[in-house]
């Protein structure tokens, strides 16, 4: 079929073109277009039709004669189990298995004091209130909170060098290094390590749970600098006694922040050297361990030894 020209009558469109006259510029100009190629470019929507590979149909499979399986071998005719080594003794039996995944390991988001000071200088974090995982995440100081935040005293390269803090800050993080604790306390600030779970951190971001108050660490046990965050997080100071004696979440929040239940976590946050939030539960002579007693505690519970008095008529 002869392609037609759009915008012309049928008689004019089917008439062969003649040589242009000298006055052709006075006539209306027509741009001939061919519409026959539209039939060859028709197709469905990208998600309307997907061609299925037909296994075992030769060239009609849609992916060549062998359908991408190759020429011969066990992989073409059947399935091969994972780590199959041709029938000989498997490598994990000959050489043994080494390594693995530690079920007790946690993945912390590291943060350096120099980066926090840079965020404070830019006005992205306020040093007037306690800095928790919520302030660090919302200000993009850290990008992934993971299982918690670990405070480091070095620079961004990771070396434990002297930090450049210009003002006292109060931090509530999951863990902290000894150099970071010393650098923060040298400027008059404080570091408190607190137990968090991934679910608890997600609820903290949604403001459905208090960032650090819980049953084991109530408003009475919290340090004085951290109490300024109580008013900012909808905690009524008149109900602090109710918070200390109740298992319910703080007023204004939906859930209660959990406390550690494993011995490993409890001993870490009971240690005053780690600035744990459970260190106030220790007795004067008690250590952070739940199994071993401190030397002072053993001396107090052992009592005085009685001297053995031999009779006068014994030779030895």
UniProtKB/TrEMBL annotation:
<keyword id="KW-0687">Ribonucleoprotein</keyword>
<dbReference type="Pfam" id="PF00828">
    <property type="entry name" value="Ribosomal_L27A"/>
</dbReference>
<comment type="similarity">
    <text>Belongs to the universal ribosomal protein uL15 family.</text>
</comment>
<keyword id="KW-0689">Ribosomal protein</keyword>
<dbReference type="GO" id="GO:0003735">
    <property type="term" value="F:structural constituent of ribosome"/>
</dbReference>
<feature type="domain" description="Large ribosomal subunit protein uL15/eL18">
    <location>
        <begin position="110"/>
        <end position="192"/>
    </location>
</feature>
<feature type="compositionally biased region" description="Basic and acidic residues">
    <location>
        <begin position="294"/>
        <end position="309"/>
    </location>
</feature>
<feature type="compositionally biased region" description="Gly residues">
    <location>
        <begin position="59"/>
        <end position="71"/>
    </location>
</feature>
<dbReference type="GO" id="GO:0005762">
    <property type="term" value="C:mitochondrial large ribosomal subunit"/>
</dbReference>
<feature type="region of interest" description="Disordered">
    <location>
        <begin position="294"/>
        <end position="316"/>
    </location>
</feature>
<protein>
    <recommendedName>
        <fullName>Large ribosomal subunit protein uL15/eL18 domain-containing protein</fullName>
    </recommendedName>
</protein>
<dbReference type="InterPro" id="IPR036227">
    <property type="entry name" value="Ribosomal_uL15/eL18_sf"/>
</dbReference>
<feature type="region of interest" description="Disordered">
    <location>
        <begin position="47"/>
        <end position="100"/>
    </location>
</feature>
<dbReference type="InterPro" id="IPR030878">
    <property type="entry name" value="Ribosomal_uL15"/>
</dbReference>
<dbReference type="InterPro" id="IPR005749">
    <property type="entry name" value="Ribosomal_uL15_bac-type"/>
</dbReference>
<dbReference type="GO" id="GO:0006412">
    <property type="term" value="P:translation"/>
</dbReference>
<dbReference type="InterPro" id="IPR021131">
    <property type="entry name" value="Ribosomal_uL15/eL18"/>
</dbReference>
